[in-house]
Design brief:
The protein is an alpha+beta fold. The chain contains twelve helices and eight strands. The chain starts with a helix and ends in an 11-residue tail after the last helix.
Length: 396
């Protein structure tokens, strides 16, 4: 840089006459105006059009370019070029007309500022590349997920976040290198800070690791109807830290992922069908086979009950007041509202069918028996009216 400045200064110092200086000044000003006002805007505009043309040839790239275009607008680029031309021409005129001290001071200021300007430009380029790179990675990952059954929405989201963190960390390290920071000391401090944070946030780190376990084990996906311990609902979100359910009452239930991995998980939509059970009791005097046939007939041609596999009615147990029958039937596209409607439909139809056939569903009842030697059951008043037997002892 200094050698180039010295060469320019020595070249301009050769022109000593006033006529030569006026001619060179006019030429420099004309060249600067033509370059700054005509060539620079058109060159930037042509470069922008060429970039747009190349971008259109790759339909996956435009979104990434548009996201970083705001960092390098054409107007800013043109103004930067014009400012550089203005500074260069000003220095040349000062040297040409003999203002050596002022020109040297201005050149020193520019010389000190240029490295920082270059570092700022390199930093902007790095972050623009990071934004564009993560967007391209997201587009590629989304395209792969659409054409593959080996990755679901949950895995796609976590994989993108991991790649995004890796890219940002790489850009951050490169930026520190550009600004000449001591990376070794920073890494040592980061390691110590990581130990402290790890000890203070053991549960959060456990949830983080459990999030990756869920990603690969895939016990459920977004939209599945699951039961985790004693809570059930639709899976609405799976993050690296927690899992969110929405239950039938519209409540949001949040589980830390470390609890999910240690819990009993029931996925009711994994196979897209679910078998339901409903118990009903009939009187002991009822013909059990006839009651089974009536209940089985009542389970056919229903809106929410599937005909294949066909519903089943099985005797279950001798209960206190009745013989228990268990109704087994299937539903598809299972959900909490669909399960509730299917059970309501089955209960309504079976009750109506039993009423038509005169099959009694008994109330809870209890049969009491009394011992004969205790004179059976007696009302309290009757027991009081009976004479009390007295024992008579014979005295000698």
């Amino acid at each position: 840089m200094q050698t180039w400045v010295d060469n320019v200064r020595s070249t301009l110092a050769q022109f000593v006459s006033t006529e030569e200086r006026i001619g060179i000044s006019a030429a420099l000003v004309a060249l600067a105006l033509g370059t700054a006002l005509y060539l620079a805007p058109r060159a930037v505009s042509r470069a922008a059009k060429e970039l747009d043309r190349r971008v259109l040839e790759h339909p996956k790239v435009p979104d990434a370019v548009n996201d970083v275009a705001w960092m390098f607008p054409a107007t800013i680029v043109v103004r930067t070029l014009q400012s550089s031309i203005f500074v260069g021409v000003s220095l040349s005129l000062l040297w040409l007309w003999g203002f050596e001290t002022l020109a040297s001071d201005l050149a020193a200021i520019v010389t000190m500022a240029l490295p920082n300007v270059a570092k700022i430009g390199a930093t902007l380029v790095l972050f623009a590349a990071a934004i564009a790179g993560t967007n391209v990675l997201e587009a590629q990952l989304e395209s792969y997920a659409k054409n593959s059954e080996n990755i679901n929405a949950h895995q796609q989201g976590i994989a993108f976040r991991v790649l995004q963190v890796v890219v940002l960390l790489a850009v951050a390290m490169a930026t520190l290198t550009v600004w000449q920071f001591e990376i070794g000391g920073i890494l040592v401090g980061a390691g110590f800070l990581g130990i402290v944070v790890g000890m203070a946030a053991r549960q959060t780190l456990g949830s983080l690791i459990a999030g990756f376990v869920l990603m690969f084990s895939r016990p459920f996906e977004l939209g599945d109807w699951v039961q985790i311990d004693d809570a059930e609902g639709i899976v609405t979100d799976i993050t690296i830290i927690n899992t969110r359910l929405s239950n039938a009452d519209g409540e949001a239930v949040v589980f830390p992922n470390d609890r999910v991995t240690n819990a009993k998980i029931v996925n009711r939509t994994k196979r897209n069908r679910l078998r339901l059970r409903l118990d009903v009791g009939v009187d002991y005097e009822t013909d059990i086979e006839h009651a089974e046939d009536v209940a089985r007939e009542a389970l056919t041609d229903l809106d929410f009950v599937e005909s294949v596999p066909e519903p089943q009615v099985m005797p279950k147990a001798f209960e206190d007041s009745s013989i228990g029958l268990q109704l087994l039937f299937w539903i598809t596209n299972p959900s909490a509202p669909r399960r509730m409607r299917a059970k309501a439909e089955v209960l309504r139809n079976v009750k109506l069918a039993f009423d038509r056939e005169g099959i009694k569903i008994p109330f809870p009842q209890r049969e009491l028996l009394a011992r004969e030697e205790a004179d059976g059951f007696q009302l309290r008043n009757e027991r009081r009216s009976q004479p009390v037997k007295k024992s008579v002892s014979n005295e000698d």
